[in-house]
Each structure stands twice: as C-alpha cells, then as structure tokens.
Amino acid sequence: MAKSKQLTFEEALAGLEKSAAEIIKDDTTLDEALKNFELGMEYYNKCHKILEEAKQKIDYITDIEVKNE
C-alpha cells in the first residue's frame, strides 16, 4: 500500500477485496498468501480508521443537534 497517498475508504476497501481474492486463488503460494494477508490487514486498518473518524463526526454533530433542541 502506498503510504504517501491518502486512500479514500473506497480505495482501501477495493484493496482489501483484491488482497482477499488473491489469497483464495488455487495457485497462490504460502508466501504470496502471507504477503496478501499483511497487505489486506493494512487496508482493513485503514478502512476501520476512516469509519471510526466518520462515526466520531456523526456523534459530534448529533450531540450538537440534541443540545440545540
């Protein structure tokens, strides 16, 4: 995964899906599967981080709206 580029959620999810697809191929070696697993975990962590940040924003906005009622 390119660390210099900020990935969008959609890009990270596509990378995760690609890594998973590579792992389950019949001709994937153990070494390739491990590399794809590691890469997939990086994409998973990126997706998780983006979703957590979105949840925090939603919670913050919701709290403001409730207090203003």
Output the radius of gyration: 17 Å
Low-confidence stretches: none
The major pleated sheet works out as:
none
Distance between the termini: 45 Å
Q: Helix-strand pattern, N to C?
A: HH
β-strand amount: under 5%
Tally of contiguous helical segments:
2
Helical percentage:
over 70%
Number of strands: 0
Overall 3D form? rod-shaped
Structural class: mainly alpha
What do the pLDDT scores average to? 93
Task: Spell out the blueprint of helices and strands.
Elements: H1 9-23, H2 30-67
If you had to describe this structure to a student in words, what would you say it looks like?
The chain has one domain (9-67). By secondary structure, the chain is mainly α. The mean pLDDT is 93. The relative contact order is 0.13. The protein has helices at 9-23, 30-67. It is built from two helices and no strands.
Summarize the structure.
With 69 residues, the chain is mainly α. The protein has helices at residues 9-23, 30-67. The chain contains 2 helices and no strands.
Give short descriptive properties of this protein.
0% strand, 2 helices, mainly alpha, 77% helix, 69 residues, single chain
